[in-house]
Amino acid sequence: MKRKVYNEVIYDEQTPLLNVPELVDNKTSNTVCFKSKAKDMEPINLPTERVPDWQNKAVELFGEMLDKYKGLRLFMDSCVRCGSCSDKCHYFLGTGDPKNMPVSRQELMRSVYRKYFTMQGKIFKNSKDCVAFDDNILKDWFTYFYQCSECRRCCVFCPQGIDTAEVTMAAREIMARLGVGTKYVTEVVHKVYTTGNNLGIWAPAWIDNCKFLEEELIEETGLKIPLPVDVNGAEVLLVPPSADNFVNTNTMLGYAKMFYAAGVSWTTSTFCNEGGNFGMFLNYHNYKTINNRILKAARDLNVKYILWGECGHAWRAGYMTRTLSGSMDFLTVKYPKHVCQFTNEMIKKGAFKLDKTANDHLKVTYHDPCNVARATTGMLEPPRDIIRATCNNFKEMHPDTTREKTFCCGGGGGMLADELMSMRMAGSKPRCMAVKATGANYLATPCAICKANFGESLKFWDTGAVVGGVHDLLSNALILNH
Ligand code: SF4
Ligand code: SF4
Ligand code: SF4
After folding, report:
1. How far apart are CA 248 and CA 167, in angstroms?
2. What percent of the chain clears pLDDT 90, i.e. is strictly above it?
3. Which of 169, 228, 252, 287 has the fewest CB atoms nearer than 10 Å to its CB?
4. Residue 73 CA, ligand 2 centroid: distance in Å
């Protein structure tokens, strides 16, 4: 088989870079999100249809954001078109579409900026570098700012420090306030306000499922290991991604066993059983409102501290809690903490007996979720330390694709929608090829969305690996006292 190296990643020549024909449905193009519905926009405080005089409104909103976020103006002014970012985006590498080069994505916003907010735009009104905010540019914004997972990889390579994720967020904010959102993201945000979580699971179903998982644990271990819900005065409030309770249940079982072995009381909350925050993929108002719910749940349940579960963007949002939602001083641990940090501290203290050979059937590699690796600090080593403590066979991926240089899974940033399946598979290619090169049969990652996309893409790119959580490995290795 012919192989080539492209952007430090080995590709099989036989797998096309330009498209993923197996999944393309010509009727729907498979590259543009479905539009939001009025029934979801109204409850989340956004216009149900395109606002009147929307072009002028868009320029007004853009001006408002430039005044408020000085970094955005800096990003608009400081690109020197060096091209360093151009081949760093997984969506460009997977699709070959030049508009998916980060510099081109930024240009969609920068060209409008020049037209309305620079001298160039005022003097050279017909310059092709200065673009009016019209239907065509709005279509491009809707397409390409929803083909960016806000992963920030390109930013690592930009000599000017320009963060395309911030540009994408600003564009999505403007579109949302014009009444232009995506069906998937707005539906999920709406579900959080009605049920407390992204999946739309009502409280009785959440409680039932916790009981069901407790029975599974009795069957597996012979022990009554609780998955407590709404327990007032528990030590820890765990905010997992809701998917852990229904889809990635081995991860949820891992948390339960870990708390049991550590002797720490914990609870989930039916008011807020979701760490994920799709507001981050839509606009600031919803980002902040969703995050506020976590502090409210912690106050209502009188817990001592909050632990965020295995979810990449949940941790990015959670990490911002004190900026977004205010003081955490009412807690014993007054800052955001991730469950992997907590578990790792327990391991280091010697709180657990572990049998690594329980994972000997696995050849493990680790995916740094981009939101964990690049948008926060202190979380590069704890998941690796847990893996090393629980597995004998651990192999890192190529260093140019790990830690702060990690590739996004291809399904983040509000792009896990069914209609974007071909984009998701194309975008996952750099990561999947790096997994394949390790020969691993288990890809560990602390992110529910990564797990959802890899569930499809590891098969699509024929890697021979399955995906799972970090606490799944702990769950296998823990020796529990009877
Ligand atoms: S932030 Fe990530 S997805 Fe967006 S352009 Fe940069 S590399 Fe691509
Ligand atoms: S790396 Fe930075 S300065 Fe260079 S083209 Fe990309 S955004 Fe512009
Ligand atoms: S799903 Fe995972 S890799 Fe993809 S954007 Fe989110 S955290 Fe990053």
Report:
1. 32
2. 89
3. 228
4. 15
Question: Is 1 contained in some domain?
Answer: no
Indicate whether residue 57 lines ligand 1 (CB < 6 A): no
Centroid of chain to Cα 248:
16
Phi, psi angle pair for 2, to nearest 5°: -75, 140
Q: Are residues 201 and 332 in the same domain?
A: yes
Give the other-Cβ count within 10 Å of 47's Cβ.
18
pLDDT band of 385, cuts 50, 70, 90 = very high
For the Cβ of 218 lying below 6 angstroms from any atom of ligand 2, the answer is no
* pTM of the full structure: 0.94
Q: How far is the CA of 309 from the centre of ligand 3 (A)?
A: 14
Shared domain for 157 and 200, answered yes or no, is: no
Contact assessment for residue 298 and residue 237, using Cβ atoms and an 8 Å cutoff: yes
Which residue has a Cα nearest atom 6 of ligand 3?
412
Structural domain including 457 reads 351-479
- Mean pLDDT over residues 323-348, rounded? 97
| Domain assignment of residue 13, yes or no | no
Q: Are residues 74 and 146 in the same domain?
A: yes
| pLDDT for res 30 | 65
Q: From atom 2 of ligand 1, which residue's Cα is the shortest distance away?
A: 151
Residue 312: name the closest of 457, 155, 417, 469 by CA: 469
Domain boundary among 288, 320, 345: 345
Task: Check pocket membership of 147 for ligand 1, CB cut-off 6 A.
Answer: no
Query: Residues 288, 412: one domain?
Result: no
Q: State the distance from the centre of ligand 3 to the C-alpha of 316, rounded, in angstroms.
A: 10
Average pLDDT over residues 161-168: 98
Query: What tens digit of pLDDT does each residue of 46-68 get?
Result: 999 999 999 999 999 999 999 99
